[in-house]
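Researcher: Please predict.
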Amino acid sequence: MTDKIVLKLSKDGTVHGLYNEVVDFRSLGHVNTRRISNVEWSDEKQEWEVLLAHGTVLGYYKDRSEAIRQEITYLNERIRKGTVEDIFK
């Protein structure tokens, strides 16, 4: 996985970040979670697939751990840029 936890604070006080068990998001206020991606086995490709909420496939990976690592890296970068909400469009 990744060692870094990325949190983005919006001007309205909203905090965006990937769920983890290191940060107790409840201590920051009301928590609203949405599934933004899935890592699933593709019978067709015979690899692990990272699928974003709007249906785009991020990639296919031999190892599940690598698929999760790539998923986290990609989503953290979107959080840094402030474009993570675009995934739901």
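Model: The chain has one domain: 7-88.
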